[in-house]
Amino acid sequence: MSDLQGYSSKNVFRTGPQLPNTIWAIGGGKGGIGKSFISSSLAMCLTRMGKSVTLVDLDLGSANLHTCLGIKIPNESLSDFVSGRVDDLSKIAVTTEIPGLNFISGFNDALNIADLDMNAKQRLITALRNIQTPYVILDLGAGTSENTLDFFLAADQKIVAVTPEPTSIENAYRFMKAAFYRRLRQAEGELGIQSLIEAAMDSRNQHGIRSPADLIRHIASVNPEAGLRLQTKISDFQLQLLLNQVRTREDIEIGTSMKSVCRKYFGIESNYLGYIDHDNAVWQALRKRRPLMVEFPYSAIVGQFLRVTKNLINPQSLRAVV
Amino acid sequence: MSQREQTNYYEILEITPDAAATEIHKAYQRARQTYSQDNPALYSMFSPEEARELLRLIDEAYSVLGNQATRKNYDESLGNRSSGSPGTSSKPIQTPSAATSTPVRPMEVVSATKAQSAPSSPMGFSSEVSDQYKVKRSELQKAAATPGQGRTSLSTYKLDDSFESEITNASEFDGGFLQRVRLYKNISIDKMSDATRISRPYLMAVETNDYKSLPAAVFVRGFVVQIARQLGLDENRAATSYMKLFKAGGGK
Which of A132, A164, A210, B98 could form a disulfide with A13 if both were Cys (CB 3.0 to 4.6 A apart)? Predict the structure, then answer.
């Protein structure tokens, strides 16, 4: 069996003073589009670049990220942290045989993402922020539950995975809309402009409001100061689009089109990170329960993941690519 | 006034105001592809009607920004507006879907003679002008039945045997000839623009043989085919002849 099934004792957590980490979250609404595969592959690309990473399986209820990594189900998982049995995420993180990669499992049949109450969620987000590896990657589950959206919004890089199929595209947009309105709701609470937004939404037909971009413009016209503060507040809602399972040249262009659609609909810039080809190597590696990066380290698809990872690390190169 | 899609032509094509001509052209092609009906990336975000309106707006933006002269006028209008109202760098326009009030349209800036025309249709033509083009079917039928009168899908006109003969025997279809045929057949340039979806500046550039102001050859050929079709000319002959002159005249 796999030589990755055991765990090394090498600890990749930083020691010394607390340093901020960078959180990447991978969402996308639809199940089966490769979120876990993408999460694990991005994490391994980071380790290849010499960065330490903690990979967190937040697909509570149907966690299986450990399978993508080719390791056994860890004895401890997030449910131990949520229940209070463990007070530090580093205690439930396991190190893998991939140098620099830590893993926190979400595997527990009893725990579902919807079961997290507000306090547990906030405590978990704070703990994720305090993880002492430079990068933390969150593998989110399917759907648009509030908790999933809150973890997505808490991330520094909000990656939306999508495949070129209409069902995936539809769900990706649904996910983006849900996340955007969740962010808007957070912002309106912080800025105290609930009444302004409610009034606008009540008479949206009258004002021609049909998209978030229209809503923000309307608020800016009614109350320029509030509009400016709102725009500033939601400016961190910058999505990173990643197209998976691409088969044709036309498929590649879907990412560019979605970027344009997001701009016209939300009125906010998103980035087309890049695309990952549909490749038989993926299921071959998965069937063997070995990570793609280990099984086929020199495949073209690994090169695509490395390029996407570089784009995420260095926004300057992102602008040059897209 | 509706807030929907108040933006300028550069934002519609998603380019910066200092974009080079090639960038504008590429952005236009990309935008056309993005908002075409069969693009799955539109699915569930924009209805077919909204996508059509966006396409019209994109065409309109390109008709202005794709031509150096009209772009210069437009840029000047943006500059004037931004200097008049601090904090705004661009002049807002309104999408067709929100044309419930009187929008300030860039085409009005480009054409001073149209500056006073009032509420515009989605393509930038005033409703008055559009109404002017509406010819009642019964009138057309009546005209077609009248001896000595010819008819196209857009107009009726008085037949001139000598000019008809010249058209039949024509071997060179330059811009001037196309213009003469259009005027002979009583088709205004606005009407031609409406029917072919080719912007007025491009139609005028074709008719004045202003090859430098026209886009790449493949597009110009398409323009000439469209125009010839409306004029009832042999499309292939007209396009082949015009393209020879276009290439010889230094077209792109």
Answer: A132
Beta carbons within 8 Å of A317's beta carbon, 6+ residues apart: A310, A311
Q: In whole angstroms, what is the distance from residue A112 CA to residue A252 CA?
A: 35
For domain B135-248, the CATH class is mainly alpha
Domains of chain A: 22-167+239-321 (3.40.50.300)
pLDDT digits (tens, 9 = 90+) for A104-139: 998 776 667 667 888 989 999 999 999 989 999 999
Smallest Cα distance from B246 to chain A, Å: 33
Rounded-to-integer distance, Cα B130 and Cα B152, Å: 18
Write down the domain spans for chain B: 9-131, 135-248
Residues B185 and B158 sit within 8 Å (Cβ to Cβ) = no
Q: Which of A156, A154, A196, A208 is nearest to A179 (CA)?
A: A154
Which residue, A76, A84, A138, A148, is CA-closest to A112? Answer: A148
Give the span between the Cα atoms of B189 and B230, in whole angstroms.
12
Q: Which H helix or E strand runs over B32?
A: helix B21-34
- Domain B9-131, second-level architecture: Orthogonal Bundle (1.10)
Rounded distance between C-alpha atoms, residue B147 and residue B231, angstroms: 20
CB contact under 8 A, A208 and B2: yes
Q: What is this model's ipTM?
A: 0.74
B90 lies within 8 A of chain A by CB: no
